[in-house]
Structures are given as C-alpha cells and as structure tokens.
Amino acid sequence: MVPDDRTRGVIRLGGTGSPSGDRMEAPGAPPGAQTGRGALQAHLNWPPDAGVDLDLGCLAEYADGSVTAVQPLGETFGSLTSWPYVVLDQDDRTGEEPDGQTLRVNLAHLREFRRLLFYVTIYEGAPDFRRLRAALTVSAPSSGSRTIALDDSPGGATACAVAMARVEAGELSVEREMRWFTPSPMVSDQEQLDRAYEFGIEWVPATKRPRPGREAPRG
Predict the structure, then answer these.
(1) Region labeled Disordered — which residues (predicted)?
(2) Going edge to edge, which strands form the sheet with 171-181?
(3) Does residue 82 sit in helix, strand or coil?
(4) Is 78 in contact with 127 (CB distance < 8 Å)?
(5) d(CA 15, CA 199)
(6) What is the largest CA-CA distance in the chain?
C-alpha cells in the first residue's frame, strides 16, 4: 500500500461559478434534452486487482444558493426522495462489487439544482490513477451515456473533476471536465475541488474505517 498522509475532508455549507468543458450529448440528442424525468447517473467501476480504494462523489449547488456534497467519506450518502435529491448507493472499498459505486440524481427535482460536479478521488492504495483502469459512465434518460476512462492522469494526481451537470431554464446539460488535482499540504482533495469550482463549502477532517487487513491512512 502506498503511504498516505493526505488531509481528508468532509463537507458542510455555501457557493458560485465554475470552469467548463466539452458538452456530453448522445449522438442525435438535442442539447439540454432532459427536463425532469428519471435519474441522471454516474457509475464508477475499477478492477479489484488494482488494490485501490476509490471514492465517487458529487458537489451540488441548488437554485436557492445552498450547497452540499454526497460522498463515501463522512458517510454522506444523501437521499433520492428528499433533499439533497442525490444518493450514492454504496462505498465499494476494493472494486470487487459488481455494481461499483453509483450516484443518482432525481430529475423530478431538476429545477431545484443549479449545478453538480461529479468527481473521483483515491482514498488509499495508489499514488495516482495511471494503470488503475478505472472508468466513470455518465448517463441520463433519452440522452444516452458516455464512459470516461481515468487512466490519463498526470503523475501524482489523486483527484479528478470528471463531469459537470448544469441546469439552465429547466434543462440539463452535462459537460466533460477531466481536471486533475495533486495533493496539497493541509488541503484535502475535496477542498481543492471545491476551491477550483467555487462551491464555497466548509470542510472538516474525516477518515474511513480501515479495510480488513489494512491500517487506516492518517487524516
């Protein structure tokens, strides 16, 4: 296991603004085709022989200016039927779960959202994403899906802002980001993501329980 002394972060509160990327639309699908049915999904998978614990998360900003995060760290798994209308199904610690990790956004509450940033972080087990063979698939009803490989990271990158969903005039668009982050002293990967995209969330340190047979990284 790679030694890991990185600062860890869990969330709490307020934000604005963000960079953009390439729009992700299925072939033939009109931009902003989603108007409020079903679920927007982001699905993370990686092979168990990679020996790594990856986390899928989401920073969400709402039309009223409130913000939150849904992620395994801190066990902030969210809810699909009540606020924040975003849910993470599980924390796959090894890649052995056949369903990986999946975030779902309830599009029945589409107009309550302003933007959602989907990100992946390395909790432990690898110095960066190279050779992990991890991939994130983003899909929405009537707009198809797109799978994004996470192998092209620079050396030392432990977090990636993968895709941004935005809601404008009641319509949803999703853009590819692929912005990489390397560890920074005293600043967690999550806080780096937050600062880069100006969500304005307050963070507190957190760690997970150790995986069986492993020591917990120091937080």
Answers:
(1) 1-37
(2) 22-23, 171-181, 159-168, 113-124, 53-62, 67-70
(3) coil
(4) no
(5) 4
(6) 50
Q: Which amino acid is at 51?
A: G
Interatomic CA distance for residues 18 and 82, integer angstroms? 26
| Residue 99, token pair as written in the block | 């369903």
3-state secondary structure of 57: strand
| Cβ proximity of 13 and 201 under 8 Å | yes
What DSSP character marks residue 195?
Answer: H
Rg from Cα positions in the chain: 16
Determine whether 161 is exposed, middle or buried from the number of CB atoms within 10 Å of its CB (0-12, 13-18, 19+): buried
Half-sphere exposure of 37 (CA within 13 A, CB side): 4
C-alpha 68/C-alpha 7 separation (Å) is 19
How many Å apart are CA 166 and CA 60, to the nearest integer? Answer: 10
Domains of the chain are 10-26+40-204 (2.60.60.30)
* String of DSSP letters for 111-179: GGEEEEEEEEEEEES-SSSTTS--EEEEE-TTS-EEEEE---PPTT--EEEEEEEEEETTEEEEEEEEE
* C-beta separation of 170 from 110 below 8 A: yes
Please say whether the dihedral angle defined by the alpha carbons of residues 205, 62, 78 and 146, taken in this order, is positive or negative. negative
Q: Compute the mean pLDDT over every residue in the chain, rounded to the nearest whole number.
A: 80
